[in-house]
Structures are given as structure tokens and as C-alpha cells.
# Entry
Amino acid sequence: MVIELQSSESGNGAVTLTIQGDIDMSTSTEVRTHLTDLFEKNQKAIVVDLSQVSYIDSSGIATLVEGLQWSHSNNTKFRLTSLTPMVRDVFEIARLLTVFEVYDSREEALKGV
# Structure
């Protein structure tokens, strides 16, 4: 499956990256490149919308963990939103729901940015 990436600015210094498709070994590099570009623009916050991601593997998780690490280095908020049940299960099994800031909706994730 081909991955589609869209980013949109919210006007308050935050950008939302919407990912559509699976995040796996063949697509995680593309996600990483897009995240790197967003961090280089010194956004106040990056919200990753996973509402259209039906599958994520360990390389996808590693890419998001890298994003979290970059956010700490850049003093940027890094939030995940709208995890599908399958993706949420992976994060729960890996015990990452408490590591990331996870929100149920994009609107909630953009509050207080």
C-alpha cells in the first residue's frame, strides 16, 4: 500500500501530519523524511494524525519514537491523535501510550499548543 502524507498548519504554530496507509519497513523512511522536514521548520508543535493508518510495525514505531526524541531536542510538542484500534493495540502492547502524548481527536491535540 502506498502511503500518503499531508501536512496542514493550524495557525497557532502547530502543524498536523496526516498519514494514510500502513507504516511499515517500506514506508517508514518516507514518514521519517517528512517529520525531519517539519522539525527543521521549527514548528511549535507537531501533531501526527493516525486515523487513516490501519497497520504499523516496529519500524513505524521506531520512526515515531525518533520524532519524540527530536521533539525533546528541539523543544517542540509532539502529539499523536486518532489512533485506530489496531494501532492503539500495538502502542498498548509496547507500553508506549504513556510515553507519547496521545489524544482522541485532532482538536484535543491542538489545544494548549
In short: The chain has one domain: 4-110. The mean pLDDT is 91. The chain is about 40% helix and 25% strand.
